[in-house]
Design a protein that fits this description.
Largest sheet: 9 strands, antiparallel
Distance between the termini: 31 Å
Number of domains: 1
CATH class: Mainly Beta
Helix content: under 10%
CATH architecture: Sandwich
CATH superfamily: Jelly Rolls
Structural class: mainly beta
Strand content: 35-45%
Number of strands: 11
Mean pLDDT: 97
Amino acid sequence: MEIRETPIKDVYEIYPKVFKDARGYFLESYREDHFKNKGMNTSWVQDNQSYSEAGIVRGLHFQSGEHAQAKLVRVISGKVLDVCVDLRKGSATYGKFHSVVLDEKLQNMLYVPTGFAHGFAVWEEAVFTYKCSNLYNKESEGGIIWNDNELNIDWGVEEPLLSEKDQLWPDLKTFTEISKGGL
């Protein structure tokens, strides 16, 4: 398993070793010792899975306060552009984002620590799965509008299909004012 640092502290891209033969493939999608060696001492308490058709954008979501969640995300099938935005109060990279293409052929993953908004754009019909460090709590859910002008994320989708709530989140500037500087 190769764990790569990104330009944003505590966000990691993970590339497992994939063993292929005539029968198919095998990989380890998580190994606690490898993660702990990089300082990711996360206990996972919930696994989620979603299916999305191409052209859908989900996010940018977060859980706040005592319900904040770290996530380990990947696609089982398909291809997505995965994005996380640093919302950690006082962080040197506050308001910056990191994106990576998660692809079933690479079987790569992204580790998103607490204090980040997260979302993805579906480039090819996808089954998306993620581990969470905390249970979902509706009252602690928040978000940043997906097409925020300040972030200027190129989602790679011309006319995305969005949920109603994902069209109503505040922009980063408004979130920063409301939250008094972040999560």
